[in-house]
Structure formats: structure tokens, C-alpha cells
Write a structure and sequence with these properties.
Blueprint: H1 12-15, H2 20-61, H3 68-72, H4 76-168, H5 174-265, H6 269-280, H7 302-319, H8 325-329, H9 331-334, H10 336-342, H11 359-396, H12 403-436, E1 449-451, E2 454-460, E3 465-471, H13 486-497, E4 546-550, E5 569-574, E6 581-588, E7 591-598, E8 602-606
Antiparallel strand pairs: 1-2, 2-3, 4-5, 4-8, 5-6, 6-7
């Protein structure tokens, strides 16, 4: 059915004059619906708060861990992801703004208006109920007056009829007839009075009823109509206001989304690839070609190698102290008492001189350290100059301050400056040495060659290189050019402890059963060029890696270490493995001695 156009003057009081109960029910349902809309806004606000909270928790859970090293060379994808997290956090903030504005600007207004509407409705309904009750009371009075009039009229008619019968009856005396006449007059008077009262009440009732339905009750209905329209208008305004709350944050949300797109556009895969190169480049050269072994040619040293292998194997079984990889891993704990003062680690777990890093990475760390120290020196120098000027001012005018207090601070500043300069000089020397260091050509991994279930290790003693194969269980053995295996040196110490006869040129005597040693000095003519095969549990011995000079005297106080005097020259047979100790060898009146000395006490020169 088509909607009919409502006239501008149409009101509930005029059109719905008889729908008091229905209007009361309608307004009650309208206010209930309005409050339900308020509950919707409240629940939506709670959802916005929860959503913002979960977004912030999401950002916190996926926030990358801070790493000082990674911050220097961050990947563009990581930076972009961090920016995305920031934008998501900003989105969470905007959702919180939406929730707050919905509560303050919409929900509170709805609750306040609903309360006012309920109060106005209650007042209007009470007024309407009072008017209706007054009208019903007046109608009741009219009904009573009408019943009284009807009763008096019937009694008057009955009295008239009795008088006429008495007047027509000749048997009655005149006194009886007069009595009936008096009764008739009384009844007629009462009837007239009841009639007058009824007429009066009827006039009053009609007047009140007319005023009730034309003036008083329409006013009540109009009030109900007004509050219902106010509710409808409020519904409209608050829906718009809720939308405006979203509109207000939409520009910021749009900027957040633009920031995400911008972060995505900032990702550069080529730059990330270069960062990987900068981060992991070792500076080692790729390994050379593997030489061909012609098995058809006889090996003159095969018998010696076999004899040496058997002798060393027998020695290990005799002493029961062959060095395994598990024992090598525990070496740090043996001399850990000395490492706390002489070779501290950085916060990154690296050595102070970064000697445990590959060449390229070490140079980068040293360069950064030098720049950091230069900045500290500049800052301390500026502070010292400022104190000097302040001291001069105080000396010129003692009223401004005591020069002695400044002098104490100045002495402390000069002391700090000296320490920083010494540390800077130290790292500059280390950087210069790292830049000039060319003796490491291959990475440790490139020195391991596994072929047909056998491993060939190349060792140099200064004259020539040979290769021998032995059984391998697939374990990694540190046969790199940068370090000498521990088993050879520990074996030498074990030989001395078991009374084996070792001569001055570094080779074992025939009585020892070890054959010719390959741990002699390079160029001495006594070192063997053959490698000594060994059981797969043990590492192969190598020639000295270089020489070292003692910078300070050292008194051996623990088992496995050897004493040295300042300026003494020793052979390096194993470089520092990160525990602050270097295994060295020297010749004395008792023969060759091997043991550990603090790395910080010596200055090493490795062979190229």
C-alpha cells in the first residue's frame, strides 16, 4: 500500500485520541529499542578496545629482537617490517580513539537521552492517567445522579397514580385522599430535584469530557509524540555521530596504510643481498685444485708411515691418554682461571681483538672500534680543554670557584684520555696488522677433503707437502692452516711424561717407536715431509705454525703450562682457540718442551 502523505498539522492528540494504551506501549518499546542501540554502541566500543589491545599485543609479539650488530646492517625487508609494525601500532591507537569517542560522544549521549525520555514518558502517562481517572470519576457521579433521578421519577409517578386512585375512590375519607396528595407533591418535588441534579451533572460531565478529549488528553498525546520524535531524531543524530567518529580517524588510518605501502616499496632485494655479503664475507680465498695421486708409483715413505702409525697407535693404547675431540672441547675449563683477566670477551661474546673472526669481519670490527675510540678521545679531549679553561678562569678570579676542585677533575680526565689513547693505539696496530695479514689463504672448511670415505689433510713443514688418508667416521676434524691439532702437542707432552727419549732436532729416537717426527723446526733438515696416519678418534700432528716472542715473564703454576722469560723465542704449534691460551714449544737442555702460555703474554709471527 502506498504511503499516504501526512498533513503538517496532524498530531497524535487529534488522530489517536482513543489510543492511550497503545501509545503508552509504543513509546515504551521505542525507548527500549533506543537503549538497545546504546548497548550496541557500548559493545562495539568494547570490541574496538579489544581489537586495539590485540593489535598492540601482536606488534609486541612480532617485534624483532634488538641486536646492535644487526642494527648497523639491517635488511630492507626487516626495516620495512618494523615500519609496518609501527603503522599497525598507530592503527591500534586510532581504534582506541574510536572506542573512546564512541563512549564519550555517542554512548553517554544515548544513555542521557534515554533517561530523559523515560522521565518525560512517565510524567506524561501519569498526567494522562490522572485526566482519565478524573473523567471516569465524573462519569460515575453522573451515573449516580441519573439513577437517583430515575428512582425519584418512578416514585413520583407511583405517588401520582396512588393519588388519582385515592381521589376516585369514594370509600376513602378526605383525610386519606389529602394524605395521598401530600405524598404525591413530595415525590414530585424529589423527582424535580433529582432531575435538576442529573441535568447539572450531565452538563459538568459533558464539559469535562469535551475538555478531556479535545484539550487535556491531546496535550498528553502530543507530549508522547514529541518525546517519541525526539527519540527518533536522537537515533538519527547518534548514528551519524558514530559514523563521524570513523570519519575523523580515517585520514590517519589512510596515512597508516600509505606508510605500509611506502615501507613495502622501500624493500630492495639487491641491497639485502649486498648486506648478506658484508655480514658473512670471510676474506678467505677459494681452495685450489686437489692434486692427482698416482698409485702406480711406489711410495718410498710408505713403510716409515706404516711404522710410525703403528708406533703411535701402540703408544696411545699404552698411555691411555690419546686426545679426543671431547677432551679438546674441555680445554677451556682447564685453564679458565687465567682467562678472566687476560683475555676478556666483548658483549657480543667475541674476543677483544676479534681474532676469532674471519679476516674481513675482523677488519670491519676493528675499524668500527677504532672509530668509536676516536670519538671517545675527541669527546674526552673537549672535556679536558673545557676543564683547562675553567681552571684558568678560577685561577684568574678565585671568587668564581676553587681551582683545586677543577684540578682534581682535570687529572681524572687526563687519566681517562691517556687510557683511551693507549687503547686507540692498540686497536690501530691491530687494524694495521689485520690489513697487512696475508698468511691465511683458505678457510678452515676448505682444508677438509672427503673422497671415497677417506680424508686427505695437507700439512706443511717448510719443505714439501704430502697427503695420507685414514679412516673417518664423518666427524669434522680441525685440520686447518690456522691451528695445529691438540693431539700432537698433547702426545708430545705425554711422551715426555712417560720417559720417552726425544732428541734435540725434534724427532723421536728409535727406542721410542715413533719414528721420525714431523714437528721439528722448519728448515732444520730433520723434519719429515710425510704425514703420520692415525686412528679416526685422534687428530693429525702438524708442523709449527710460526714463532712467538714473550712480552712478559710467565711462571707456570698449573699443569699443562710452561714458564717463559721476557724476550724468549718459542715455536707456535697451536693458535689460541678462544680460551686465551696458546700452545708453544721450545728447546731446552732437557729436549723439546711443549705447553700452554697466555696469548696476551706473547707476540706471534705466523708463517705465510
Amino acid at each position: 500500500m502506498a504511503a499516504q502523505e501526512i498533513e503538517s498539522g496532524t498530531t497524535w492528540g487529534k488522530e489517536l485520541w482513543d489510543q492511550f494504551d497503545n501509545l503508552a506501549t509504543h513509546t515504551q518499546k521505542g525507548i527500549d529499542f533506543f537503549e538497545r542501540f546504546g548497548n550496541f554502541i557500548r559493545d562495539r566500543s568494547a570490541i574496538e578496545v579489544e581489537y586495539a589491545l590485540k593489535l598492540r599485543r601482536l606488534v609486541k609479539n612480532y617485534q624483532p629482537k634488538k641486536n646492535k650488530e644487526d642494527e648497523e646492517n639491517e635488511f630492507s625487508s626487516l626495516i620495512a617490517f618494523k615500519n609496518v609494525l609501527k603503522e599497525v601500532a598507530d592503527l591500534a591507537g586510532q581504534r582506541e580513539v574510536v572506542a573512546e569517542n564512541l563512549q564519550n560522544q555517542v554512548l553517554q549521549g544515548i544513555m542521557l537521552l534515554a533517561k530523559n525520555l523515560r522521565d518525560e514518558r512517565k510524567k506524561a502517562l501519569n498526567q494522562g492517567a490522572g485526566l482519565t481517572q478524573s473523567l471516569h470519576t465524573q462519569i460515575g457521579t453522573l451515573d449516580r445522579a441519573k439513577r437517583s433521578y430515575e428512582k425519584a421519577f418512578r416514585e413520583a409517578e407511583k405517588a401520582i397514580e396512588g393519588y388519582h386512585k385515592a381521589d376516585a375512590d369514594f370509600h376513602l375519607s378526605r383525610a386519606d385522599v389529602e394524605k395521598q396528595r401530600v405524598n404525591m407533591n413530595i415525590r414530585n418535588s424529589q423527582s424535580e430535584d433529582a432531575k435538576s441534579e442529573y441535568a447539572n451533572q450531565l452538563q459538568i460531565t459533558n464539559k469535562q469530557q469535551q475538555q478531556h478529549y479535545q484539550i487535556a488528553l491531546p496535550e498528553v498525546f502530543n507530549k508522547l509524540q514529541e518525546l517519541d520524535e525526539k527519540r527518533t531524531r536522537g537515533m538519527k543524530e547518534f548514528i551519524k555521530r558514530a559514523a563521524d567518529v570513523e570519519y575523523e580517524v580515517s585520514p590517519i588510518i589512510a596515512r597508516c596504510l600509505e606508510g605500509m605501502v611506502k615501507a613495502a616499496d622501500s624493500i630492495n632485494e639487491k641491497d639485502d643481498s649486498m648486506i648478506v655479503i658484508e655480514k658473512y664475507q670471510s676474506g678467505f680465498q677459494p681452495p685450489g685444485d686437489i692434486p692427482f695421486e698416482d698409485l702406480s708409483k711406489p711410495d718410498p715413505d710408505a713403510s716409515n708411515n706404516s711404522q710410525t702409525h703403528n708406533s703411535s697407535t701402540g703408544l696411545n693404547h699404552m698411555t691411555g691418554k690419546g686426545t679426543t675431540k671431547d677432551k679438546l672441547k674441555k680445554r677451556v675449563g682447564i685453564f679458565g682461571i687465567f682467562t678472566g683477566n687476560k683475555n676478556n670477551l666483548t658483549t657480543d661474546g667475541l674476543k677483544e681483538d676479534f681474532s676469532d673472526l674471519p679476516p674481513t669481519q675482523r677488519r670491519k670490527k676493528l675499524t668500527a672500534k677504532v672509530q668509536e675510540l676516536q670519538q671517545k678521545v675527541a669527546q674526552e679531549q673537549a672535556a679536558s680543554d673545557g676543564l683547562m679553561k675553567m681552571k684558568g678562569v678560577y685561577e684568574a678570579n678565585s671568587m668564581l670557584g676553587d681551582p683545586r676542585t677543577v684540578e682534581e677533575q682535570l687529572n681524572e680526565s687526563v687519566s681517562r684520555l691517556d687510557r683511551l689513547r693507549q687503547e686507540l693505539l692498540r686497536y690501530q696496530k691491530l687494524l694495521e696488522q689485520a690489513n697487512n695479514q696475508t698468511f691465511i689463504q683458505h678457510s678452515p672448511q676448505s682444508n677438509r677433503v672427503t673422497q671415497n670415505g677417506q680424508r686427505s689433510s695437507r700439512h706443511s713443514n717448510g719443505s714439501s707437502n704430502h697427503e695420507n688418508s685414514h679412516e673417518d667416521n664423518g666427524e669434522d676434524h680441525p685440520d686447518d692452516a690456522g691451528s695445529l691439532s691438540r693431539s700432537a702437542s698433547e702426545s708430545s707432552v705425554q711422551q715426555a711424561q712417560n720417559g720417552l727419549n726425544i732428541n734435540n732436532n725434534g724427532s723421536a729416537s728409535p727406542e721410542s717407536g715413533l719414528g721420525t717426527s714431523h714437528t721439528s723446526l722448519p728448515g732444520s733438515g730433520q723434519g719429515s715431509t710425510n704425514e703420520q696416519p692415525m686412528n679416526e678418534e685422534y687428530y693429525e700432528a702438524e708442523t709449527p705454525l710460526g714463532t712467538c716472542r714473550a712480552l712478559y715473564p710467565f711462571d707456570a703454576t698449573s699443569e699443562g703450562s710452561i714458564p717463559m722469560s721476557e724476550g724468549e723465542e718459542l715455536q707456535v704449534i697451536e693458535v689460541d682457540q678462544g680460551d686465551g691460551w696458546t700452545r708453544v714449544r721450545r728447546f731446552s737442555s732437557k729436549g723439546w718442551e711443549e705447553g700452554f702460555v697466555p696469548t696476551s703474554y706473547i707476540e706471534c709471527t705466523l708463517y705465510a
